[in-house]
Amino acid sequence: MELRDIEYFTVVAEHGHLGRAAESLRLSQPALSKSLRRLERILDAKLVKRTPRGIELTPEGATLLARTRELRSSLQNVTREIADLGRGKVGEVRVGTGPMLAEQLFPASFLAVLEDAPRTRFTIVVSDNDGMIPALRRGELDLIVNYPPRTMSKEGLIEELLCEDEFVVVASSRHRLAKLRRVTIGDLAQERWVLSEPSLLAQQRLRQIFQECGFSPPQVALETRSVQLKLETVAASNLLDYTSRRVVAKLAQRYTVKILPIKALTWRRPVSLIYREGAYLSPAVRRFSESLRMTAQRL
Question: Residue 34: which of 16, 60, 61, 42 has the closest Cα?
Answer without folding.
Answer: 42
